[in-house]
Amino acid sequence: MGLLFYSLNLAAQDRAVTGKVTNQGEPLFGVTVTIKGTKRSTQTNANGNFTITASSADVLQFSSVGFTTKEIRVGESSSLSVELTIQPKELEVVTAYGISRGKKSIPYAVTTVEGSDIAQTRRENFINSLAGRVPGATVTATSGAPGASSQIILRGATSIGGNNQPLFVVDGVVYDNQSLNQEGLIGGQSVGFANRNSDYGNRAMDINPSDIETVTILKGPEATALYGADGASGVILITTKKGKAGKTSLNYDNSFRTEKVYRFQEIQDVYGIGRNGIYNPSEVANPYSILGTTAGAGVPAAFGAKIPDSLQKFDNAGNFFQTGFAQQHNLSVEGGTDISNLRLSLGYVDQKGIVPNTGYERFTVRVNGSTKLMNLINISSSLNYIHSTTDKATKGAGGYLLNLLTWPVTNDVRKYINPDGTRVPLRNVVLGNYTLEYDNPFWDVYKNPSQDKLDRLTGNINAGVDITKWLNIGTVLGVDYYTQTGTLGTHPLSRFGFASNGFYSLYSQTTRNINSVSKASINKKIGDFSNTLTLGFSFEDNQTTLQSQKGERFFEREFFSINNTDPLSRDAKTTVSNIRKSRIFANLVTGYRGLLYLSLAAAREGDSRFMSKIVDKDPFFTYGSVSGSFVFSDLAPVKNAAPWLTLGKLRASYATTGKGPYAPYVIDYRFTPQITTGGGYAYDVTGNNFGLEPEFTKSFEYGGEFRLFRSRLTLDIARYSLKSEKQLIAARASYGTGFVIKWFNGGLVENRGLEIQLGGQPIMNKNFTWQTTFNFDRNVGEVLQMPSDLPTYYDSDTWVFGNLRSQYFKGARIGNMASNTFRRNNAGQILISPTSGLPIRDDEFRTVGNREPDFKLGWINSFTYKDFQLSFNLDFRKGGSVFNRTEFFLYLTGYSKKNLDRETPRIIEGVLQDGLENTANPTKNTIAITPMYNSDFFNTNAATEEDFIEEVDWMRLRDITLAYNVPLKNRKVIRSLTFFVTGTDVFMITNYTGADPSVNSNNTSNRGFGGAGIDYGAISTPRGVNFGLKISL
Amino acid sequence: MIRKFSKYFFALLLTTGIFGCKKYLDVNSDPDTPQNPDPSSVMPAMLAGIPRGIQFDARYISKYIQNLGSTAAADVWDTHGFQGFPSALDNGGDIWRQAYYGLGANLNFIINEGLKKGQWDYVGAAYALKAYMFQNCTDVYGEIIFHEAFKENTSVFKYDEQPVVYAGVDSLCRLALYNLKRDDLNPANSALSKGDFVYDGNRAKWVKFVNGILARNFMRYSNKANFTQLADSVIYYVDQSFTNGADDFLIPFDATKNDDTNFFGPYRNNMAAFRQTHMIVRYLDGTSFAGSTAYANRDPRIRHMLSASQDTTNGNGGYRSVEPGQGDPQNANTTSRTRVAAVWGDSLYANPSANRFDPSRGKYVWRDKVVSPIMSYSELQFLKAEAALRKSNAALAYTAYINGINAHFDFINRTVYPRSNVQLYNGAPITAAERAAYLVSPNVKTAATLTYADVLGQKYIAQWGWNFVEQWVDLRRWHYTDTDPLGSGPVFRNYIIPSNLQAFNQGRLAYRIRPRYNSEYVWNRPELDRIGATLPDYHLKQTWFSLP
Q1: Are B247 and B336 in contact (CB under 8 A)?
Q2: Are B134 and B166 a contacting pair, CB within 8 Å?
Q3: Nearest-by-Cβ selection for A580 from B17, B27, B145
């Protein structure tokens, strides 16, 4: 096929030209040296040297991946010295379907985070390291416990009742990021599952951060349009590290971390157990009957007399929490030629939590390889195996944290077990009825074991053929297969295990996702117009099967197994989800002289979730985008007038995307088995809806990108608005629907926002450089119209304690919270009970806060001084409500610092509800109360959730790293050696009175805005210090 | 060659991509639960769902109608108060739940599937249950969602006035009758016997049941000017309905676990704070009908229906009772032998077997494995007797009255029940001699002396403990305390207006329950504002049927 066309016309003046190629003085291996216009080429050796036969008139081209290509005329010199400069990476950006595009042509905001920046933070769940680094991303960890899940939302929640997490794509293949939905598990006599007391991780956390080359966040309309239903909430594209052409290298790094939790909800230790100021060791508080309605059940009520100085007080929190320790080891081998490359990496994480008996262990193997066959077909493949184990403790009501906070300071929490192995009850009155009080925190973490295990194998094959210079076709096939198993046991003597004499739950969730994308790319230049047309189609088949079992009534008290339960108490349940999608798409990018770009994208998607066996449904829907960019800095007049403007680009983009319901099988009727007399089936509480259509988001974005003074100063601004109509929600409504919950389709949610990324390199000299980046974002989400005119919609999972929940009304903001409030008269004055002098609670739910911050700001800095490097990430947030539910609980039980002021008599400001409250002369309240002697002052009538909502600002140092590159004289054996120390979550300055405002009362399987901003019984993020080294051979 | 191959490969992939997609996507049905079951699989849950609504709400209605009273004084329902809006409580909202969700939508499914498959028996039975549920629903709540119920893609449901609903119930009954009488059932599909554990698929009995609903329906017009014409309809449909106690519509329980056990039984322990009232005791101990509690005047049914205290020296054999609103003053005194006994048995003051199955425990309908009656032959005979009296046909009324009394003795004495449910009587059944003695006692009147008070009093006894909604309709039709046009004194002789009636009521008694809070007050408020259901005295507003 004429592969070896050599110019036979070897001119007489041809001679051997030699030279050396370097970068900053370091020899470069594997640089391709080609004589321009010919196929004659060679490569540099390990010392950077090359030899090629050329004439003086020839022009040599030096090219290597990652470096700017350079051309040099041979001239008369016979020995050339060539310096290649590193090509600035941001010029090429991987976009939808792995298509690389010059950044100039991209008409929407794209943020790229380097894998090294992520790995450097040494976080087990890499999502947490994105906080502050991506404008428009809101990261909320469920808690600071090992293996905790983390939620990420890009540009505000667009669905009030659907999934708002972005799509994760690793090397072109969709990477599953499910969180186990607890509703698939079976509760017991006193154990319930509602996504609030356990965390099962989010599966994107399985990725080893050390394997990440870059993370590209696509928030913009065009990219998401191409990914359709799944990408409607944004796409996080992860490119993993590949072997590079050149010398084979061996890299190893490690890190050892100690961590300590340093922020707690403060508690009062002045007043002891009792009520109305009188000491009584058996007095309890049981707000909202969280411990059941049995007499004597509750948390010891701290409404008694002052604790006498003679009594010993214990530092129970200090005695309970331990220093966490984590170690990480990463080993990789990589190498390759221009034709083939290979990278093998091993990663190991072992984390022992700050809470006894908790931990997270992960082992990962990844092999990435690629080769080029016959100079024509590019084949790459990767395999990734992950094994992880999470040992966890329960959170929320009945979990160790709340129990620790309400543990009387006069009682030593460490004495939790009798010599015979039985539980030490806190109150003697319990007399063997262990359901009357919560477990001792130590008992809880040691005797109620809970563990998740994961085995995951993901892999992909990626093949591409350059059929002609302008046509490339390729296909990617990916498989993501994992099994997550887990157990949860409650000891027969535990609060939640006593009634059933032990409870044991186990599950096994298997997910098998297959997806493939095939595409053809045509690159053709016609005159001044460059054109790239991509046509393709994709398939997806996602299957998840959750099998769960439970048993009660243990035979052996200490043995946790389903076999140890009474066979009559065993129960099993299967939940299957199978979703298939198919999509055809097209994307045309046309550029005019590198100045103007126009991009059109369209996709037609079929989603199995819209199929029906009963009615005729069309599962296909179409969406698309139109966008353009204008690189005005390349205009000649601009170039002349403003030579300091390296790049000036304006862009605008409009797109539509569709989204399916969060679950399959909701179009056709839903029936559930009945256990009433005669058995059979009846409709599920959630009613189907034959008429459901895709949720549609119309997004508009415009902005600009500016690089000044040779990119010393960069600015990227994006303004956007997202209008999401036909919201798909399963909402409670009038039973007139025939159901308790019903699928609705309608309404309108709008998100508007501003994102700014400002970067600069204020100092750049040989010894000292300083790079700094500000990431600013602000999003305002509003429910403009409720689906089917529903008066309200709430997420019942967030209703974890007291009467506050994530709830929407027409006109509500997207982070809206609603709760009971005090009853007020027409003039807005609080109504007071004429008999007690205490306020009266109103059972209606009213808006009391919005969890969306006013704005967020991330400030990332990186300094290098000679061989030292210092970088840190400061994260600011202004405003946004956080409900301190933990404190609300403590207040109602007497442990909050707000309970301290109890000896001063006071009159609650308000008017009496005596029939005159709405007249011109309401009766002013004059009833004085001394809370110390009237503990009702602290009960749910006199305190509402409203009083525990805080507008929170924070500044937190997410991470800081100091690294030292050991100067090496001989780089033949050791190429580089770096020692580093990294601190994570080193400090937080905040006006928040609780432990950590960035927690989630639920887990990430929650929908809509979820439980973010509701702080209830979750441990704060601990402070960690990592030491380690990186070595490269 | 490779290029060529690639081209073909690509072309092939593209073709598969465009065609064959819809089939590929056709996986949207749950492999774990049937999404389109046969009506025979849905029917059992419908039958089991009826007692859930009635019995749950019986905890409240039974107090308005003084079937039962609270052990505690000044109970909110004993004193004709209410719960629910503006407080967020669903108490009294279960009939609402069952009418729309528990049964309603499911019955529509049975009807639609049955029509498709030619299962006319299921269609008819489902219409019958729908008529029954909606009749109950409007009886309890007054204005309800009828025509707009089950409408798709809306969250706003308009309410209909009672006459519209009663007319709608009539139409549902006609549809039920039409379908139940069809003989051209598709033999390829399951017959009604498969899912019907009440009548075992006996369509003739279902037809009678529907006629019973119609008879009840016509009695809703008893206070209207033209009722004398409609009274014939009551009589006609009663005659088309049950012919003896074997036709009674009784829903049995399996009593193997919480959910298939009688809500009233000891296992589920829901009746611990409920006690028999003066009203029922006085009907049965001779006070009401005979004027004295002398031994000869005591109804032999009393020992099967009511519970006696340890101390039997009170003059009626120890059948103590609570006065509504007053509770049992002795209740907290655990050593007192004069406490009012719990419904579960003589000399019992607490639950004998909470959370434990014990078929031997309990009394009358207050057992784990006894039927929950829905409609009885006895009740219908009293309906006929009242209609006949309204037409001044004393002879007809007397026959029906005696039939009704006899039928209720049979009701207690019945020995065979569906799904092996246990008998209602306590120890030995009532003997023929006891019955005969009762029938000639001063408790039972003659054709010449028969009054409304006798008919509705006996009906009260026959309906006690299960027919709460119908009993409440009777009381409201007679405005609780109306004077007997045929006698002296009130129709309901022992109905006691609690001395501590809720102050807010200003002497008025309850006529309706508010629609379910967590359905209507949260999600359908504008409609409630429109009908006045957000007014504080809505529960005191007379229902349409009780008005002239």
Answers
A1: no
A2: no
A3: B27
Interface of B with A in 393-412 (CB under 8 A): none
Q: Are B56 and B263 in contact (CB under 8 A)?
A: yes
Residue A164 has pLDDT above 60, yes or no: yes
- Please give the Cα distance from A30 to A23 (Å, whole number): 13
C-alpha R_g of chain B: 26
Q: For residue B421, what is the nearest residue in chain A, using CA coordinates?
A: A677
CB atoms within 10 A of CB B317: 18
Contact residues on chain B for A579, CB-CB shorter than 8 A: 27
Backbone φ and ψ for A902, nearest 5 degrees, come out as -125, -5
**Quick one: tokens of B408?**
């209720």
Query: How far is the alpha carbon of B170 from chain A, nearest alpha carbon, in Å?
Result: 20
* pLDDT for the residue numbered A940: 83
Q: Predicted confidence band at A4 (pLDDT cuts at 50, 70, 90)? A: very low
Which residue is closest to B527 within chain A, CA to CA?
A734
φ and ψ of A625, to 5 deg: -150, 155
Identify the helix (H) or strand (E) that includes residue A715: strand A713-732
A859 in Cβ contact with A831 (< 8 Å): no
Q: How far apart are CA A634 and CA A94, in angstroms?
A: 23
Contact (CB<8Å) B149/A736: yes
Half-sphere exposure of A961 (CA within 13 A, CB side): 28
Look at the block and give the residue holding tokens 């243990």. Answer: A554
- Location of structure tokens 């990844």: A366
Please check the confidence at residue A350 and state whether its pLDDT lies above 90.
yes
Q: Which of A736, A716, A735, A604 is nearest to A657 (CA)?
A: A604
Residues B89, B91, B92, CA angle at the centre, nearest 5°?
140
Q: Tokens standing for A656? A: 């539509």
A683 touches chain B (CB under 8 A): yes
Report the share of chain A in percent with pLDDT over 90: 67
Q: Using one digit for the tens of pLDDT, what is the confidence trace for A169-199?
A: 999 889 999 888 888 888 887 777 776 788 8
Suggest the residue from A468, A543, A675, A734 to mutate for an interface test with chain B (most B CBs closer than 10 A).
Answer: A734
Work out the burial of residue A421: count CB atoms within 10 Å of its CB; fewer than 13 is exposed, 13-18 middle, 19 or more buried. exposed
**Prediction ipTM score:** 0.94
Q: Among B33, B195, B523, select the one facing A734 at the smallest CB separation.
A: B523
Contact B544, B162 (CB under 8 A): yes
CA distances from A39 to A36, A82, A246, A665 (A): 8, 20, 21, 59
B32 touches chain A (CB under 8 A): yes
Neighbours of B333 (CB within 10 A): 12
Cα–Cα distance measured from residue A648 to residue A714, given in angstroms and rounded to the nearest whole number: 10
Distance (Å, rounded) from C-alpha B364 to C-alpha B345? Answer: 9
Pick the more confident residue, B135 or A65: B135
Mean pLDDT value of segment A229-235:
83
Judged by DSSP in three states, A410 sits in coil
Residues 6+ apart with CB under 8 A from B197: A677, A678, B44, B47, B252, B418, B419
Question: pLDDT, tens digit, for every residue of A844-857?
Answer: 899 999 999 999 99
% helix / strand / coil in chain A, to the nearest 5?
10, 50, 40
CB contact under 8 A, B101 and A735: yes
DSSP per position, A617-650: ---EEEEEEEEEEEEGGGSHHHHHH-TTEEEEEE
Q: Cis omega (within 30 of 0) on the bond before B86?
A: yes
Give the nearest chain A residue to B20 (CA atoms): A582
* Interchain CB distance below 8 Å, A611 and B520: no
> Is pLDDT above 70 for A515?
yes
Greater confidence, A339 or A47? A339
Nearest CA-CA partner of B310 in B332, B328, B290, B335: B335
With CB atoms and an 8 Å threshold, state whether A735 touches B10: no
